[in-house]
Amino acid sequence: MATKADVANIRPQSIGTSIPRREDPGLLTGRTPYIADIALPGMLHVAILRSPVAHGRIVGVDLSAARAMPGVELAWSGADVAPRCAGIMASLDQKGFVATVQPLLAQEEVCFIGEAIAVVVATSRAEAEDALEKIDIDVEEIPVVATVDAAMTTGVLANAKVPANLVYRSDRVTDDVSDAFGAAAVVVEGCFHTPRVSASPMETRGFVARHEWTTGQLTCWAATQMPSFIKTMIAIHLQFPEQQIEVITPQVGGGFGQKAHLHPEELLVCLLAIELGRPVRWIEDRQENLFRATHAKQQVNEMALAVDQEGRFLALRDRVTTDGGAYNSLPWTHLVEGHCGILVVTDPYRVPALAAETISVATNKCPIGAYRGVGFSAPTLAREVLIDRAARALGLSPFEIRRRNLIREEDLPYTTRAGLRIREGSFLATVDRLEAMIGYEAFRERQESARREGRYLGLGISIFSEISGIGTRALNFLDFPITSHDTATVRVEPTGKVTVTTGIVTAGQGHLTTLAQVAADAFGVPAEDVTILSGSTSHAVGFGTVASRSAVFGAGTIGRAAEMVRAKMRAIAARLLQAAPEEIELSGGMVHVRDDPGRGLPFASVAGAAYFAEGTHPEDFDPTMEATAAFDPADIVLANGGHAAIVEVDVATGQVRVEKMFAVEDCGRMINPMIVEGQIRGGMAQAVGMVLLEELIYDDNGQLITTTLQDYLLPTALDVPDIEIAHLETPSTLVPGGIKGMGESAMISAPAAVAGAVNDALACLGVTIEQFPASPRRVFAAVARAERT
Amino acid sequence: MKFPAFAYAVPETIEEALELLASDADARPLAGGQSLLPIMALRLAAPSMLVDLGRIDMLRQCVVGPDRMRIGAMRTHAANAACFDVWAQLPLMSDALHHVAHQAVRNRGTFGGSLAHADAGAEMPLVVSALDGAIILRGPHGERSVPAADFFQGHYTTAIEPGELLVAVELPYSPLQWAFEEFARRSGDLAVAMAAVGVDLDGDVCRDVRILLGSVGERPIRAHDAEAFLRGRPLTPGAITEAGRMAVAGVAARSDIHADPAYRASIAAVLVSRALDRLARGDF
Fold first, then answer.
1. Residue A788: pLDDT band by 50, 70, 90 thresholds?
2. Which of A108, A272, A314, A736 is within CB 3.0–4.6 Å of A555 for a Cys-Cys bond?
């Protein structure tokens, strides 16, 4: 009986080679269209008035002057939208979870700076912005909840619908750890603050909609990672017939999770297009993106680790508070940060006892959402910095303490205290490889001699396992009661070429190349003979390009569908070659008898026979040379690896410079090593940003201070050092070809390496850094404090 | 982030530009546009007319004299950075230009535009102040020369009167050896603090010295006390540290998200000391 988790047979040929990305000529010459390149006849432009206050009651919105401005076709406030759509209901079927409803335009209450209050549609964006200035809003300011402390200690509510500002509390793992902490030789603990950051894709969000009243068709162009989800959500939220909706994704200019949500603006643009009967476009500008596109990563981890005399971990305690903002984002909600985090907080170490609690609170800030590495980044950072601290206390090297605690071959399968079953992983090999790449002993000598010159070098390392290729099993483990599978359709054309349609959308990851490599190997043909069609919900169904899942779901779906078509090819070839179908293999562009490539036919000939030569068909042959198949892995697909960073801290100014970074990645069999390394480098650049530069700062009134990229500091090419990468390959048995996902690993674990390196550099001064980013101001202050004491 | 509507004019002579500016009190000259245009896109400024100076060839001229150079206001940072005479005669400016934004901005951003904008974190106002330059302003009633010390009045504030145009800068060649130090969050960012330090050394004794701090106050600050302290003194490590401390003593430093006043002053002191240290070691 076939199931969605069946692992098809794919024999790697093209898989494993760094063929050039077929999308690059279009991207590098600017010929590939992004959403802002979509130009439709009669198209109108949207500008949105966003709340200037963090928390207020809307007394009145006067649109009359705006409506009279040149070029203005329509202006709406919340009252106009409410009858058409009640807002985005973000709920999770979890006990105690407090759902929120975010209106498309604020109704009575605005809950954060940047929340949409009114919208203008005009013949140009500039005219629409001119009209925004004429909107007269009367907002009565009410008390603001600007911090998690305020959310939990004052009686003020950030959102009237969230009692006590508590969105969710969970303590799924509550071992009694008091004995372990009592018996520990060393207890290390800290209170780690990770910053509120923005994924900041190069292309901001955007949405274009056209409603054709003659047919009822609603066509949407979306800069999204989840087009199928958006389509269904439009149907549900706007009561629109789903079969008449198409969501097209042109080239997407980066997403990193920020575009993996249903955003209020997307529904709003659909409503405007339906109302006006003309195409309507909204392209977010950078300032809107900083104000309103989902934020991420802001957690407080109060963590403690108990360690025995030999450096073995006895227990880990973590209390996580997530600053989740004013609403839940659909579909990930506040759970995407702290709650996800505590469920993987001990991986990949043997930690016998765990007590972890997580609280998500509402504040008058922009709602949080997914960002590469989601809630895993923050606890990984805290854990790894504490492990280094324990190593220092015990006089162990940071590599040795990890070796003594990592899950070993003989422990497998190992089930963590949170319930994650780890079936494979090259954890010890990762540590050994990192240590060799860095040249640990030599580094310590260099560090020592630099210190004598008043220069402070530091080394940080981090070991991770990544829940990759996230399907239903992984989502359910993380307490998201969501089903997640994809489909792909594979067709062999009459001339032996292969066409694949997939629901996977691409935002620069090179899927058109890697999925072609997968399909090519499924049929034993060259990758040039395969075309991948993606980018429309008219194609296949996909959950979205999120959670390091496209390699896994691409291989799984294409593999299963190809297997069905391969059976047809085998059947014809068996008849023509007078062999049994089981004896027929497809490789090297031939369909041939196993172990006898001479006894075979060109792939194209067999395909042609299926279409045009009935005489070659076996009895009862069904000539449908295409198949659609779903895939969802049978269990959680785990990748693993480690990162290291060497930094130099200028203690006189507090400036941290990253000298070099290292990565060891084990994502099973790599489809295209060049693309894997690109993913690693990109994620490591973001890690440098999160730990040293990026921070969305709100003041006490809930005003966002960092409203341009002059204040919100993204790492540039000059801030990212050379990165040395090594690979290990532990194939997955759950995915065709042994493939695993890996897109998020660098943002899960490299922040910890950078944070650890800063702490290592300053350890000799008795300085610890637990608040990030480790800006010069913070580092300087910490050094000054240590000098005073 | 789209511009509000504005009129646009492209004069070909300075006189024409002055007439246009005189005709409309809300008109603003447009140089390289690297600061003004983003401010307009954020709708923090809405001039009624932009008078584009890009076609006035006179404003791009550079006159190399025996003791000074006169640099046209519309010379781009990139052109100045690539200019042999700037490198040979004004090494401080040459050094500082490496810190001005990124290549793409330097290609369009102009010397005069940066001075007229007078961002406290920009490098060129500090350089012109350090070298005791004079800013040449042309108005309806002719030309006047304003010493840098009088020209920069605050963050975004200068001595330019309505209707006047910054046409050139005169920079005398300095007999001092200079060192430039900057602290910024990222390479190419506006400075959190910077120091321009010039010395005339006799052996290791400081015959003359000039110390200016940038981005610490609202405008370039000259550290007179530290200069007086160093004159006639050998540049020992102790003297260097003390001069750095004195340079910021009593300075009311500005505050932003990157640095509060005390931290900013500490950095400035470090930068002054580092510049002096380099000069003492002959590393300039």
1. confident
2. A736
CATH number at residue B207: 3.30.390.50
Instruction: Tell me which residue in A287, A716, A719 faces B1 most closely, judged by beta carbons.
Output: A287
> Is residue A275 left, alpha or beta, with left meaning phi > 0 and alpha meaning psi from -120 to 50?
alpha
- CATH 3.40.109.10 holds for A35-142+204-252+259-292: no
pLDDT tier, A113 (very low <50, low <70, confident <90, very high otherwise):
very high
Q: Going residue by residue through chain B (284 aa), what tens digit of pLDDT does each one get?
A: 999 999 999 999 999 999 999 999 999 999 999 999 999 999 999 999 999 999 999 999 999 999 999 999 999 999 999 999 999 999 999 999 999 999 999 999 999 999 999 999 999 999 999 999 999 999 999 999 999 999 999 999 999 999 999 999 999 999 999 999 999 999 999 999 999 999 999 999 999 999 999 999 999 999 999 999 999 999 999 999 999 999 999 999 999 999 999 999 999 999 999 999 999 999 87
Give Cβ neighbours of residue B98 (< 8 Å, ≥ 6 apart). B81
Q: Say if the Cβ atoms of B258 and A777 lie within 8 Å.
A: yes
Q: List pLDDT tens digits, range A29-62.
A: 999 999 999 999 999 999 999 999 999 999 999 9
Tokens of A265: 């603006």
Query: Do the bridges between strand A353-361 and strand A313-323 make them parallel or antiparallel, or are there none, so unpaired?
Result: parallel
Q: Chain B residues within 8 A (CB-CB) of chain A? A: 1-5, 38, 42-43, 183, 185-190, 192, 257-260, 263, 266-267, 270
Q: Is A95 a residue whose pLDDT tops 90?
A: no
Q: Report the alpha-carbon distance of residue A511 to residue A551 in Å, rounded.
A: 8
Radius of gyration of chain B, Cα coordinates, nearest whole angstrom: 19
Chain B neighbors of A708, CB-CB under 8 A: 38, 42
ipTM for the whole complex? 0.96
Residue A588 forms contact with B (CB below 8 Å) = no
Q: State whether B48 and B64 are in the same domain.
A: no
Written as one string, the DSSP assignment of A563-581 is: HHHHHHHHHHHHHHHTS-G
Of A126, A697, A781, the CB nearest to B257: A697
Q: Does A397 touch chain B (CB under 8 A)?
A: no
Q: How many residues does the structure list for chain A?
A: 789
Residues in chain B: 284
> Which of A122, A134, A132 minimizes the C-alpha distance to A276?
A122
- Tell me the pLDDT tens digit for each residue of A213-264: 999 999 999 999 999 999 999 999 999 999 999 999 999 999 999 999 999 9
Question: Which chain A residues are Cβ-neighbours of B105 within 8 angstroms?
Answer: none
In whole angstroms, give the CA distance from residue A683 to residue A687: 6
**pLDDT more than 70, % of chain A:** 100
Same domain, yes or no: B186 and B265: yes
Alpha helices in A578-601 (DSSP H): none
- What's A757-772 look like in SS3? HHHHHHHCCCCCCCEC
Q: Top-level CATH class of A295-474+634-788?
A: alpha beta
Work out the burial of residue A731: count CB atoms within 10 Å of its CB; fewer than 13 is exposed, 13-18 middle, 19 or more buried: middle
Chain B contact set for A711 (CB, 8 A): 257
Distance CA A557, CA A754 (A): 37
Q: Measure in Å the smallest separation between the Cα of A764 and chain B Cα atoms.
A: 22
B185/A776 touch (CB, cutoff 8 Å), yes or no: yes
Residues of A in contact with B1 (CB under 8 A): 129, 285-287
Q: Which domain holds residue B199?
A: 177-281
Q: Do A287 and B42 touch (CB under 8 A)?
A: yes
In chain A, DSSP finds a helix count (H) and a strand count (E) of 21, 32
Task: Classify domain A24-32+485-631 by CATH number.
Answer: 3.30.365.10
Contact B185 A715 (CB under 8 A): no
| A713·B186 Cβ contact <8 A | yes
Both structure tokens of A348: 């990949």
